Amino acid sequence: GDGKYVQFNVTYTTKSIITKAELKNYYNQLESSKDRILIGNEPQDTGTKGLIKADTDGTTAVAADAPLKLSDIFTFSYDEVTGVLKAEPTSKVSAGKVQGLKYGNTGATNYTSGAEISVPTTGLTLTADTTATTDVNISDVMSAFKFNGTDTISGFPAGSSASTLRASIKVINAKEESIDVDSSSHRTAEDLAE
After folding, report:
1. What pLDDT was estimated at residue 89?
2. What's the N-to-C CA distance of the chain in angstroms?
3. Which pLDDT score is estimated for 1?
């Protein structure tokens, strides 16, 4: 009633939907970082591993001609009308594996024992206004498409799970007033909010 207070208890989650503007910005960041090196090409016979290719005998490993960059394995596209961001594997990827290159040491028989490099084949499309921040973390482009140091390159990074939060909102000195929205009254919601 008049002169007292009104209290509202609100429950909400921290999950939010990614907008077209946010997704376009994320796409631009991916494009700017496409020359980022995922795996270096300076492996040793023992110790330091890196990107290797097969020598002419097919089993001996030698250092790859160049490091593996993000642009070697994915191209990115963004449709401004539909708000869809896609990561598409390049011709260097087949059946979820980088072709002709492995991760390991140089030396005899090391190409055979080197690790095939896996890349994601699903979850490569993000859609604005439907993809949620809990589905993917677009705040740090460097956390996307990272090599795990063993045999796998990740895709879009998952976001943190949504939290359910509660808030209690108290309006002090509330004034109770009714208006007839169908009448020709000149009272507005702004008047009542004052």
Report:
1. 96
2. 16
3. 47
Measured from the Cβ of residue 20, the count of other Cβ atoms closer than 10 Å reads 18
> Both tokens of residue 116?
């095939």
DSSP character for 153?
Answer: B
* Bridge partners, 60 (sequence order): none
| DSSP assignment letter at 186 | -
The three-state secondary structure class of 148 is: coil
Q: Check residue 15 and give its pLDDT.
A: 79
Distances in Å between the alpha carbon of 56 and those of 60, 68, 85, 89, 115? 8, 21, 40, 27, 19
Q: Which amino acid is at 3?
A: G
Token pair of 44 as six digits: 């040793």
Where the chain has pLDDT below 50, the residues are 1
Exposure of 91 in the CB half-sphere (CA atoms within 13 A): 0
Q: How far is it, in rounded angstroms, from Cα 55 to Cα 96?
A: 23
Burial class (CB in 10 A: 0-12, 13-18, 19+), 61: buried
Show the beta-strand stretches assigned E in the chain.
4-13, 37-39, 50-54, 61-63, 68-69, 74-79, 84-89, 93-94, 97-104, 115-118, 125-127, 164-174
Q: What does the block give as tokens for 145?
A: 């498409």
> Largest alpha-carbon pair distance within the chain?
91
Judge whether 143 and 157 are in contact, CB under 8 Å. yes
